[in-house]
Design a protein that fits this description.
By secondary structure, this protein is mainly beta. 5% of the residues lie in helices and 37% in strands. Strands 1, 2, 3, 4, 7, 10, 11, 12, 13 and 15 form a ten-stranded antiparallel β-sheet that branches. A three-stranded antiparallel β-sheet has the order 8-9-14, with no helix packed on it.
């Protein structure tokens, strides 16, 4: 039930006094190396180029992608995600992928973007210095045939493509 002063349940509108979600720093990153995680069957370890630096990220995409499929690709990553250790390997960011109802998974690509290219809404706020995994999921990042949106605003900065034409919520 809603009242005049409350948005409907699940509404993404911010009301007076509500804090907006943490702002992710979405960037294009070129995959330099990829290999199976030594201590986990469902994880891959990627070495990426973010333009000004190289980092390692760990992604749960085994069964959908082989390491060789990713080398040379320009992926979109959350560059300001708090670093985490996943089964003994440090992850310094997170790649973005969507899964459809058939269980197919596709990563978000920025095929023409230089490593480090920022991707954000035109009039959106600057990214936070660091966000948590939980904070990232306070945002709604959707990929469809018409483009990619962050909290309802189109991302700009480079052409974005969902690999394998898999659309949905990006995680």
């Amino acid at each position: 039930m809603t009242t005049e002063n409350q948005p409907p349940a699940g509404s993404s509108q911010e009301g007076p006094g509500e804090t907006p979600p943490p702002v992710p720093d979405l960037r294009a990153a070129r995959v330099l190396e990829a290999h199976d995680h030594p201590n986990a069957d469902r994880l891959l370890v990627l070495k990426i180029d973010l333009g000004q630096e190289q980092r390692q990220i760990v992604g749960g995409i085994v069964g959908h992608y082989q390491p060789d499929d990713l080398v040379g690709q320009s992926l979109v990553v959350v560059a300001n995600l708090q670093h985490a250790k996943l089964r003994g390997e440090v992850s310094q960011g997170m790649l973005l992928a969507a899964e459809n109802d058939a269980g197919e998974l596709g990563v978000l690509l920025a095929p023409d973007a230089a490593p480090g290219t920022a991707l954000r809404p035109a009039d959106g706020p600057a990214p936070d210095k660091e966000i948590t995994f939980t904070g990232f999921h306070e945002n709604t990042l959707l990929a469809g045939p018409e483009g990619v949106t962050l909290n309802g605003s189109a991302l700009e900065g480079a052409r974005l493509v969902m690999d394998r034409a898999v659309y949905g919520k990006l995680r």
